[in-house]
Amino acid sequence: MTGQDTSPLIVALDTDDRGRLNSIARAVAPHAGLLKVGLQAFTALGPGVVADVARLRPVFLDLKLHDIPTTVAGAAVAAADAGATMLTVHAAGGAAMVAAAAKAAPDVTILAVTVLTSLDDDDLAAVGQPPAAEQVPRLAAMAVAAGAGGIVCSPAEVAAVREAVGRDVAVVVPGIRPAGSAIGDHSRVATPAAALAAGASHIVVGRPVTGAHDPAAACAAIVAELQWA
Ligand code: C5P
Q: Is 88 helix (H, G, I), strand (E, B) or coil?
């Protein structure tokens, strides 16, 4: 597991400051498999940020799209044109919506988000939905059958998702905290090695890298931890 082409590490570039984003992106690119552009950076800086980052590493564009199939298909084409390699949509948008995105952007890996980990089972009940443990494997299997190339899920769900979708698709896991780092606002976290052992193909790390005094060194430490796991 050496070199950026095989690194499972995705660094989240969560900032609305173009200079800071470019500087972190340049620093971490040698260690990361992909770089994540999320809603904050995309909304503040525009689609050009995808092309800028894509000059360094493939871009995971985390927009969590959820709309009617035609609209999501149009956005998926625009994401492909902007230079995204991976794009997130909500599995809850349904099989037709996931299929429309996959068909519209065949060169982009469509990742389906199952249930937001900010929602606990009481929150889900309040919006008329079953508990996460019941929904997540079902949504994951549905999305992959519809053409998704992967799933985004929390560390708590990764083993069940891997079992539901098989070995051939990406399982991308945020909520990762290297041993000894601050948990922040996550209620459930896993170390990089534990997430990969449970079945993740990629891990997403944001603040433990972007908030570090030396982001490149923080990435190198994560990759080293994985090599020796
Ligand atoms: O907490 P951290 O800064 O490492 O988060 C990294 C990224 O993972 C953020 O961009 C956040 O949007 C995303 N994330 C997510 N689902 C979670 C937790 C974080 O998509 N449950």
A: strand
